[in-house]
Fold:
Amino acid sequence: MNPLIGYILITIVVLIAFIATFFYLWIIINPLFGSVPYVPSSMKTVRKMVEAANVVPGDIVLDIGSGDGRIVIEFAKKGIVSHGYEINPLLVFISRMVIKFKGLEGKAFIHYKSLYEAKFDGYTIVSTYCLPKTMSDIETRMFHELPLGARVVSNTFRFKQWRPSRKDGNVYVYEKNIDSSFSKEHIAVV
Ligand SMILES: C[S@@+](CC[C@H](N)C(=O)[O-])C[C@H]1O[C@@H](n2cnc3c(N)ncnc32)[C@H](O)[C@@H]1O
Structure:
């Protein structure tokens, strides 16, 4: 074999091994810091979340902890401007590549940022797949910052004080409107 081809092959294998190791280490280390581990929503659930959000023209979506960007991408495919906040640089890179590949650059945006930095007032739909601790951390601020009419779609996990208006299997839908139930007395029971 031509030594140059051998050299290129070895470089590719080492590169793939390095990326895979980094990826898995990040997944293991992440939860140790009390953050949300990378567990992607199934595509069935993603479609259910998009459906449950009742999108209308002009909506702007934020997925907090956007993983590989699948939720951001699914909303963008509906023509909705969608943003994702993600702290895993590899997932940021992968999701940006997929967005480019699918030609959704003008609609889907991934920010290498912590979800704790998010300002919710600019969004009409927020999607989450976060552990209860993170849900509690952001609940009050999200409720107060979101504009009236906003919806939050959550995979599996619920807020403590904000009562969901609907539930479709593992997807909870919260609406911010004048009748929204948000108090310590309204522990969600659906
Ligand atoms: C359970 S996964 C959900 C991914 C995606 N939303 C989905 O449903 O397929 C949670 C994601 O949040 C990311 N994450 C954890 N802590 C974060 C933080 N503080 N800011 C932004 N993203 C975070 C993780 O890296 C992971 O990709």
The domain at 43-175 is CATH 3.40.50.150 (Rossmann fold).
